[in-house]
Description:
Arc Repressor Mutant, subunit A, RepB family plasmid replication initiator protein, Initiator_Rep_WH1
Amino acid sequence: xxxxxxxxxxxxxxxxxxxxxxxxxxxxxxxxxxxxxxxxxxxxxxxxxxxxxxxxxxxxxxxxxxxxxxxxxxxxxxxxxxxxxxxxxxxxxxxxxxxxxxxxxxxxxxxxxxxxxxxxxxxxxxxxxxxxxxxxxxxxxxxxxxxxxxxxxxxxxxxxxxxxxxxxxxxxxxxxxxxxxxxxxxxxxxxxxxxxxxxxxxxxxxxxxxxxxxxxxxxxxxxxxxxxxxxxxxxxxxxxxxxxxxxxxxxxxxxxxxxxxxxxxxxxxxxxxxxxxxxxxxxxx
Length: 285
């Protein structure tokens, strides 16, 4: 009988940093979770890939598939998508593209699936001595969005640093974001960065902050902070920027009120509710 995969904190996913930073767009959180489940089956002393067994019960739980008559149809669809997924890794000389899996079998009598990583991925999973990332499977499975999963892997791949900087071009490519996010940093910030920050800090021990880097008015990169001191520095800088923004707003309101008083020496009560009334007077009770 095939045993369920241990989901305790000591069950680890181990892969190369390059694979963590690869460009790919999982169709759902369930597809990413399936890949993570398979990755935990790779052993440090493996010299070659094997057929990695995963009980259907583990896939159902990780993919949150309802336990009804459609379980195996959902499983079929999930593995189809995973089999067709292409990932791209940037190299100094260009890029490499890989498919994740080379084979997938469902063994009915064992109620298990056997998946095999594509042989070309061996350098990213086997005999890793340096430039690799380890993280707890349970933490990854707890993350509720694909962007949070991907940001988590990217950040964990920089564990040895207190901070790192990624260009917006690289971030968008790694995360395979839609055109709307590439045109609108506010949307990217809300749907990716802020969501990932909330999810990761709620579900995992990883603590981090980020800072947009601008050239003129355009955000060209994001700096991520991991160390306690660098996170505190980023938080202090963000707080100062917020205070400066509020101070600027208050100064603008004060100047508008002064101008309003000069324009209406008899008071502006009669103007309240009109476009000629300053904001301070508008807010008076």
